[in-house]
Amino acid sequence: MIKKAIFGGTFDPIHIGHIHIAYEALYRLKLDEIVFMPTGNPPHKLKKYVTDGSLRYKMVKSAIESEGKFTVSDYEINRPNLSYTYNTLEHFSKLEKDTKWYFLVGMDCLMDIQNWKRVDDIFKLCQFIVFNRPNFPAFTKESIKRQKKKIEDRYSTEIIYLNAPLLDISSTTIRKNMREGRRVDYLLPENVSDIIEKFGLYR
Ligand code: ATP
């Protein structure tokens, strides 16, 4: 059976922290493909800090081009407003019925999963692969273990914990550093830096 993971995010911009964790998941879990899924444009009133979907998509596409098992989907950015994870998973599992779907997320997301739309069904459609986030002091070994067990029991699922080293980088820090005129090129794939430069992003 083909094993694919969806890796959703704003990716504003995509950075080497994202690529690194995606590669760890690909390699360690022997996945066939990781589908990067940039989120859609938020509704008008929330929009002010998010770069347009087409540019975020372009950055992801160029960031992953050297890894044949990484792909990017424009499914969410082509839909009006933000998509629910449930709808995206439902779409892809209908499209590829013989694929085993995984969903790759940071621990920060798992902490508030109870608030997601149709969370019971989400766990029927895919298996979660969760990794820790650096710089989240609340996520101790114990709290992660507790939350993982709680979700597993509640939704009759099994969560894969990806115990990989992490790079302490965030898109927020990159945007902030750029506004302050600091260099960020070593935190980004070269192609992404080129696109940022070309379109004058984050100035
Ligand atoms: P922002 O700072 O704008 O919130 P971000 O860097 O956290 O952005 P997102 O696009 O929101 O990036 O994240 C997409 C996914 O990547 C999420 O599951 C998030 O947990 C994960 N992620 C973000 N940064 C890292 C990192 N340095 N290492 C591993 N995973 C990360």
Automatic annotation (TrEMBL):
InterPro entries: Cyt_trans-like (IPR004821), NadD/NMNAT (IPR005248), Rossmann-like_a/b/a_fold (IPR014729). Residues 6-176 form the Cytidyltransferase-like domain. Its EC number is 2.7.7.18. SUPFAM superfamilies: Nucleotidylyl transferase. Keywords: ATP-binding, NAD, Nucleotide-binding, Nucleotidyltransferase, Pyridine nucleotide biosynthesis, Transferase. It comes from the Bacteria. Pathway: Cofactor biosynthesis; NAD(+) biosynthesis; deamido-NAD(+) from nicotinate D-ribonucleotide: step 1/1. One of its GO terms (molecular function) is nicotinate-nucleotide adenylyltransferase activity. It catalyses: nicotinate beta-D-ribonucleotide + ATP + H(+) = deamido-NAD(+) + diphosphate. Catalyzes the reversible adenylation of nicotinate mononucleotide (NaMN) to nicotinic acid adenine dinucleotide (NaAD). NCBIfam families: cyt_tran_rel, nicotinate (nicotinamide) nucleotide adenylyltransferase, PRK00071.1-3. Belongs to the NadD family. This is Probable nicotinate-nucleotide adenylyltransferase. It comes from Clostridium lapidicellarium. The gene is nadD.
